[in-house]
Amino acid sequence: SLPVVIDCDPGVDDAIALLLALASPEIEVRGVTTVAGNASLADVTRNAGHVLDLGGAPAGLPLVAGLAGPIARTARIADEPIHGDGGLGGPAPAAPPRAPAAGHAVDFLAGQALAAPGEVTVVAIGPLSNVAAMLARHPQAGPALREIVVMGGAAFAQGNITPAAEYNFYADPEAARRVLESGVPVRVVGLDVTRSALFPLQAAEHLARLPGAAGAAGGLLCGFVERYRERFGVAAVPVHDALAVAGLVDPGLLDYGHGSATVECAGEVTRGALVADLRTPGRSRTAHIALTVDADRFTALLTERLARHTG
Ligand code: BDR
Ligand code: CA
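Above: inputs. Below: predicted complex with calcium ion.
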């Protein structure tokens, strides 16, 4: 199975992505790192610990905290309550979750890459601060990665934080740019596909009736749909980060365009915009941009995998 490290900022869809990964034998989670984004670093790290407990992750699975803000800007925690207070849809769970391990996510990510050259995939589902800092601080680590899978950007679709930009790229555009221009193969799962694969309320309600962590995941998704419905009037949600993981679990789920990509950092109204060049292949073809998704297959896969969490 494919070894991965998941860099995340839970976040409801991050939580669902983690639970999907833990239930999927096709991938082997070697560690989880956290980055500020949907909530503060302290909150997302606590949330990640809680989700790993919920999903029955082995006690020894490393959870390592990373950067508390972007690499070149002032921190801006998402203030839209789409993920609820504290990032996970409401009050913090009663039981204190597992504590993060010592060390820094940036060094942990590099250590994982260098320990198994060519094998490890980083799945980055928050702002790209940790991954970009790793590439800068540990120059041998990037080339040692198999691939970076990024949830972020909107190549052809509208953004979600501004018309031009998706949240993860907007939050730390310099980091996103560094990752996309690094020469490491990057697979970008952006709003182009995540908004075409909405997870329906009915499936969330089905999960919510199941015992154990499956039921908890269903509850999180129901709350997510509710907040989304209030805002957009649609009773189905993009589970962005879970689609990025699903694309590794089921390689047939997404179709990609190949080329190069960068991110606008200086634009007055386009900060964080993903600019993908999929024209006649030029010199660089390290960016693989997801363009289409089989939505029914994603809903079926996510439902079936989350339902495995009956403990
Ligand atoms: C991305 O932003 C966050 O709110 C989600 O967790 C996801 O990673 C979607 O734009
Ligand atoms: Ca996220």
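The CA atoms of residues 118 and 145 lie 5 Å apart.
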